[in-house]
Structures are given as C-alpha cells and as structure tokens.
C-alpha cells in the first residue's frame, strides 16, 4: 500500500490533517515532513520498531545511528540531555526555533529509547508551523534524519512530488508542505568546553 499523501498549507495547517499524521506516527508509522531546512524522515522516538525501520531506510546499524530529536521547545530538551552550561542555554534560547542542530550530552533516557550506548544526541527545534503542531499533538519528540539525494549536484530533494514517488512504498505518510530547502541545518557541538561548529548550514554563525 502506498503512503498517505497529506498536502498541508505551511502557514495555516488544518488540525484534522495534523491529527491524521499524528495517529499514524503513534501507531509506529514513518513520516516524511518539511522542516525549516530540508525534508526529513521521522518516527516516534518511543517506538523501537519504527526506529529500526528508519535505520534500515538509511542503511545504518541502530547502535551507530546519528539521528536528531526534533523537539517543540527548550523544555522538551531537558528530558533527554544532561544539564546545559549557561553559555549553551543562552545560545539555544537566542537562535531557537531555527535551523540549528545542537550536539549535546545525552542523559540516561536516550540509550534506553534508542537501545544504544551513544552518549550524545542531536537536538533540533525547527521554525516550521507544521512540525510545531505535529510535536504539540504527538506529545513527545520525533526521531529524525534528513532526506539525502543521490544526485551529486543537488544534495537534498526539494520537490514533495519527487519525494512521494521515491518513498511512497517504504514510508506510511508523506506531508507535502510545499517545496523544501536545499541547505541543511548548522551543526554545533556543545559537548566540550567551547561550542564548535561542525557544519555550516542555513543557520548563521554570526548570530552566535
């Protein structure tokens, strides 16, 4: 059965369509959705079978996977990370929601969820209305990874129709929120004494 395609207006998402996607995610479904950067694949962080499906899609062993937790706000983050240094918290408060991924020291909740020994976790709070409503109705973060393109020139697929044709038989619901971006988030490693830029992306370094 092909994935359900939900066309959702990015500025005024209808609640009934959001709830349809959330119900599928809660039942262990895999979702493709827009963010404030590129389109992403995600699932409920608490559904182990769904997490394993995402890993298979990315051809990565679950114990070695580098996925992000997509959170609604800063209060969500404290449930999965160790205490944040004041400097890091100030930066996060300044730029989130926005196109940044923060690598943080994970607390004991993360290994239990992912069945992994990883001691760090990527955290994102996208500035995207569709994502914000999904997270609000779901009640917990989404485990997520960006959709990469096999094209050597275009790194990320931006057209929802192309995404649907490519993934309709391997995921459960695809949210068409309009054309996506082709620039990923800026990644900041905050696990050491200083904030280190791992990848410069859409998020401005100057704002930090």
Kindly describe this structure:
This is Translation factor SUA5. Residues 15-203 form the YrdC-like domain. Pfam families: Sua5_yciO_yrdC. With 208 residues, the protein is of the alpha/beta class. The protein has one domain (4-199): DHBP synthase, CATH 3.90.870.10. It has seven helices and ten strands. It has a ten-stranded mixed beta sheet, with helices on both faces. β2 and β3 form a beta hairpin. The chain is globular and about 50 Å long. The relative contact order is 0.24.
What would CATH call the architecture? Answer: Alpha-Beta Complex
pLDDT < 50 runs, ≥5 residues:
none
The helix count comes to 7
Helix content: 25-40%
Number of strands: 10
Radius of gyration: 16 Å
Q: State the CATH topology.
A: DHBP synthase
CATH class: Alpha Beta
GO molecular function: double-stranded RNA binding
InterPro entries: DHBP_synth_RibB-like_a/b_dom, Sua5-like_dom, SUA5_domain
Domain YrdC-like: 15-203
Protein name: Translation factor SUA5
Write a concise keyword list for the protein shown above.
alpha/beta, about 210 residues, DHBP synthase, 10 strands
Task: Write the topology of this structure.
Elements lengths: L3 E4 L7 H12 L4 E3 L6 E5 L3 H11 L9 E3 L3 H4 L8 H10 L4 E6 L3 H6 L5 E5 L4 H10 L3 E5 L13 H8 L5 E4 L9 E4 L6 E4 L9
Parallel strand pairs: 1-8, 2-8, 4-6, 5-9
Antiparallel strand pairs: 2-3, 3-7, 4-7, 5-6, 9-10
Helix pairs in contact: 1-6
